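Structure (tokenized):
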């Protein structure tokens, strides 16, 4: 009996002690540390960008402040500093997140862009602002921030690309200092400014590099600018820069002349005058991809619609629609910032150059490298659809048609301008539409005129044949998980003869 009482007392004390420890565990916040250690393995490099940038045409201060409203940093910025973009990734030790941010100063009329680095200080168990530097860019709406191993030794390079006040392309590159693993400073290893475009020439690296056994080769950087010795506006000079390991700097390596098309120069000057809207109207059309061998690929095309502020990318049997946020004239064409209408954090920058009166060259940079439905490379040359002679009939669905249908909604008319009109009970509603396909499905997207910029007002339907040329529309939702049926009653469209 005494032994049973002793056991009961010991058991009671253990329960009481466990309760006390559990209360301390909750009160001190130690549980947060456990959760963080479990999730650290899932942290990957990501870029935080504004969710709802809206229209930034003009790049005014008030628009810039609205664009930056949702950005935050580990350490509060100083008064008057406006964040443009934030890059978040694991620290070199892999235990915490570091941040890199680009920002401008509200008091700076020149809109000069700066970069700063936030690192975790183990001694104070808090984040600190460890480093700042100025970049060559001065147009916040054109900024692209990313990190890459350019040198090949797995050292971190910060790359800030954008345009300056003279509408030149710029690229400023910083590399993590190698003096000490705890040194938070970065060293500038390249800063380029040119009236053409700047491209990092990425090539595949060895399997030994991929497995962490050996270093890889460094990536050259090519800058394309105007050939001042030529009378042809389209003639360019390609200047290649390579990394000098001893000096820890990119240095000029080769200069090559690239002859442009011989086109009537007066017309070229009109198109490339930099006057707002001129080049936008020039590319307002359907453009097909042209392979390096000169053959036209009718299964990959671009559709620029400056009036609707949209750009349609079609490739790999999938279509993506991007909101045309703003554009800046360059010496050879146009630099466009666009945003995916379904994935608001996916930004796409387009550097468009004029090749001839019927062809353009495109270089595309994605601010967030998400693996979505398509893996098409958009870089290359494109020819205007009116100048293309296709040997085989076009198999992909046309983005716009001219047709009239009756439905339970009312009478629906599609115009080949990409607009539609819905008449019901004497009331007419207007909007824009586009036909496209994803995987094996044909889809229709309707965007009413009122509230068109809101994703909630964009209606997507799967198209199924209903017999006698009629169509059945089933409401669906497009997302990163694919096509999801919303289980609404299908709408039948009957053609009006």
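Design, position by position:
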């Amino acid at each position: 009996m005494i032994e049973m009482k002793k056991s009961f007392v010991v058991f009671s004390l253990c329960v009481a002690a466990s309760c006390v420890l559990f209360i301390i565990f909750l009160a001190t916040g130690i549980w947060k540390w456990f959760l963080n250690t479990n999730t650290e393995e899932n942290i990957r490099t990501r870029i935080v960008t504004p969710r709802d940038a809206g229209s930034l045409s003009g790049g005014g201060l008030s628009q810039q402040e609205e664009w930056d409203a949702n950005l935050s940093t580990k350490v509060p910025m100083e008064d008057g500093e406006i964040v443009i973009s934030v890059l978040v990734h694991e620290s070199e030790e892999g235990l915490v997140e570091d941040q890199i941010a680009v920002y401008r100063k509200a008091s700076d009329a020149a809109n000069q862009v700066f970069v700063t680095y936030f690192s975790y200080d183990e001694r104070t168990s808090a984040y600190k602002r460890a480093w700042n530097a100025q970049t060559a860019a001065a147009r916040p709406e054109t900024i692209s921030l990313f990190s890459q191993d350019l040198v090949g030794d797995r050292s971190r390079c910060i790359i800030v690309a954008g345009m300056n006040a003279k509408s030149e392309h710029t690229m400023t590159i910083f590399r993590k200092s190698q003096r000490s693993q705890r040194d938070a400073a970065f060293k500038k290893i390249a800063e380029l400014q040119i009236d053409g475009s700047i491209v990092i020439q990425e090539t595949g690296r060895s399997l030994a590099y991929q497995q962490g056994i050996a270093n890889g080769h460094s990536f050259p950087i090519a800058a394309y600018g105007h050939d001042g010795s030529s009378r042809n506006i389209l003639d360019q000079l390609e200047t290649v820069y390579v990394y000098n390991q001893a000096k820890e700097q990119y240095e000029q390596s080769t200069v090559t002349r690239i002859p442009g098309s011989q086109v009537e120069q007066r017309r070229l000057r009109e198109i490339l005058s930099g006057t707002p809207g001129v080049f936008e109207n020039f590319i307002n059309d359907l453009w097909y991809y042209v392979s390096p061998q000169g053959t036209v690929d009718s299964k990959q095309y671009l559709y620029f619609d400056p009036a609707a502020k949209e750009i349609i990318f079609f490739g790999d049997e999938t279509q993506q629609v991007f909101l045309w946020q703003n554009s800046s004239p360059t010496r050879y064409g146009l630099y466009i910032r666009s945003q995916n209408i379904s994935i608001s954090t996916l930004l796409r920058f387009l550097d468009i150059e004029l090749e001839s009166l019927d062809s353009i060259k495109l270089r595309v940079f994605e601010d967030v490298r998400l693996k979505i439905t398509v893996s098409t490379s958009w870089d290359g040359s494109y020819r205007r659809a009116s100048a293309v002679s296709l040997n085989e009939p076009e198999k992909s669905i046309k983005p716009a048609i001219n047709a009239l249908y009756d439905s339970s909604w009312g009478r629906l008319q599609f115009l080949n301008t990409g607009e539609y009109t819905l008449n019901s009970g004497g009331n007419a509603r207007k909007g824009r539409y586009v036909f496209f396909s994803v995987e094996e499905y044909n889809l229709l997207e309707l965007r009413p005129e009122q509230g068109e910029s809101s994703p909630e007002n964009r209606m997507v339907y799967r198209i199924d044949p209903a017999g006698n040329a009629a169509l059945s529309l089933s409401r669906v939702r497009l997302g990163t998980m694919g096509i999801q049926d919303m289980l609404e009653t299908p709408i039948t469209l009957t053609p009006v003869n």
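Reviewer-requested clarification: The chain has six helices and 30 strands. The chain has four domains: 12-42, 44-258, 266-387, 403-495.
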